[in-house]
Design goal:
- The structure is a homodimer.
- Chain A is an alpha/beta fold.
- Helices cover 38% and strands 17% of the residues of chain A.
- Chain A is built from 8 helices and 7 strands; from the N terminus they run αβαβαβαββααβαβα.
- The longest helix of chain A has 22 residues.
- Chains A and B meet through helix 1 and helix 5 of A and helix 1 and helix 5 of B.
């Protein structure tokens, strides 16, 4: 019974996501997901700083409670909308209808890039299409090497992985080949960007990937939605 | 509609949890929760090593996929049952009926302590009573200071917090007073154990807390279930 109901909720979500995709016809939308505390907000701070001169951006931030992340990101000058899911019973993900409402609060005219910072959760957000063009997962090296094997759906539905906090590697027992092997095992060939959002190290390839996707969307070559099956 | 259905699922879960509580009349059950990669398994390895001489333990480990954690924990000599929630559609938490089945695979005779290592997720597991006597949340210092404010339900339903990976503090910009303030803000007076599961630093107060709770359960003074509201 439970499974049937969940399927119905996901079907409704997919319909809303398709509507969002029409609303986002002229803006590249990135769905950024991760565990709590893996550094999504710091990565976005650095990303917005670096691409501001060439790319006009906006952000939707999801959290169960607080506006901490929106407060940090609004310093970038980009319009930021905070969604608190405790208004919907403490939801563990952002659903398409929530994104539709939040995006309605942003003037999307002239916006090239809309980043959605999802609720910190490596499980549930992977199941909910929000009408995005691309998905990226942030994994911090402090979380260990085996998370892609343990949470395969997240790594399967994403188009890129950002391996964050590499500045801490000298202080960890970390097997870089193991994590890259796990990622390749669940999503062969997916690009992995090894960065320190704190120091800014390694950001260029990530920014180039983002720029290419934004340019492809502008040129009308955006990808279709990935089946999360 | 969605909310009503979720309520029904939680009601069924509460009934199953009450049945589990009868099955666990003579064993102290700890539900250990956290984000992915905060160090639950390493904490359990150290905990089992240290209390093995005096406390007979068993473990149920929940993951979406892999038996990595069970493989690590079974080296302790304690009986370990791995639950993979991908058999139930990739569930983001352990529900009471899953625990009932898993516990059925363990001979509980003479077991003093049953630890349930929940799925790595700081949101959903907080909503599901599994018939435990106590709940603890592990938060690693690499996850930042504000997680208790952002994920308040988890910290509200728990009886203790373990602040892990303190060996990394010299390499982080971390405000210890801030995290303690956030924890106290959502759950005033909850004990916080600052440890490094990797080095073994700070484990004694955590082990003492556990020993006291096990002894209280033996003496028939176990606490009632906490309302998760």
């Amino acid at each position: 019974m439970e499974i049937k109901v969940v399927r119905k909720v996901l079907d409704v979500n997919d319909t809303m996501a398709a509507q969002n995709r029409q609303m986002f016809a002229d803006v590249f939308v990135l769905n950024l997901m991760s565990s709590p505390g893996s550094g999504k907000t710091t990565l976005l701070e650095r990303t917005l700083e670096r691409i501001a001169p060439e790319v006009k951006s906006a952000v939707i931030v999801g959290d169960i409670c607080t506006s901490n992340d929106a407060d940090r990101l609004s310093k970038s000058g980009a319009p930021v909308v905070q969604v608190n899911t405790d208004e919907f019973g403490g939801d563990c993900h952002l659903a398409a209808h929530v994104i539709a409402t939040a995006a309605g609060d942003i003037d999307l005219t002239g916006i090239d890039l809309l980043i959605v910072e999802n609720v910190g959760n490596l499980v549930c957000p992977a199941e909910f299409d929000i009408g995005e063009d691309a998905r990226a997962v942030v994994l911090s090296v402090t979380e260990g090497e085996d998370k892609p094997a343990k949470y395969p759906l997240m790594f399967r539905v994403c188009d890129a992985a950002v391996l964050n906090k590499i500045d801490l590697l000298p202080h960890l027992d970390y097997d870089r080949d193991a994590v890259l092997g796990h990622i390749d095992g669940v999503h062969p060939g997916m690009p992995v960007f090894e960065v320190s959002a704190r120091t800014g190290d390694g950001l260029d390839p990530w920014l180039d990937w983002l720029r290419e996707r934004i340019a492809a969307k502008r040129a009308g070559k955006g990808p279709a939605a990935v089946d999360r099956g």
